[in-house]
Design goal:
- Helix content is 61%, strand content 0%.
- It is mostly helical.
- It folds into two domains: 37 residues; 39 residues.
């Protein structure tokens, strides 16, 4: 017995606009996908089709400086991550890279 393949769902103009708005508001792609019940690939595909500039992967120098300053003031990695809007892993990696230079 053949398996029925459901047709992919069409995204409404409102959902597409929501995806773009959430992405512009710096919501992670994974969170956007969960919010709309779609695959992460679909989020990237929609952003590309709507000619949205992708966010840079590198953490900006002012964010790195803020991380180093907060660390010097005794904040935990989790608190720093929450303050500057990056993952705790990113904070840890930046500190590894830069604290040996201090």
């Amino acid at each position: 017995m053949p398996v029925d393949n459901p047709k992919p769902k069409r995204l409404s103009a409102e959902v597409n606009a929501g995806i773009v708005g959430d992405y512009a508001a710096k919501m992670p792609v994974r969170a956007i996908a969960r919010k709309y019940g779609i695959n992460e690939w679909t989020v990237h595909h929609r952003l590309k089709r709507m000619a949205v500039m992708k966010r840079p992967y590198a953490i900006q120098p002012d964010t790195v400086n803020a991380i180093l300053r907060l660390h010097a003031n005794g904040r935990t990695n989790v608190a720093i991550a929450h303050s500057v809007g990056v993952s705790e892993t990113s904070v840890r990696n930046i500190l590894k890279r830069h604290t040996s230079e201090l």
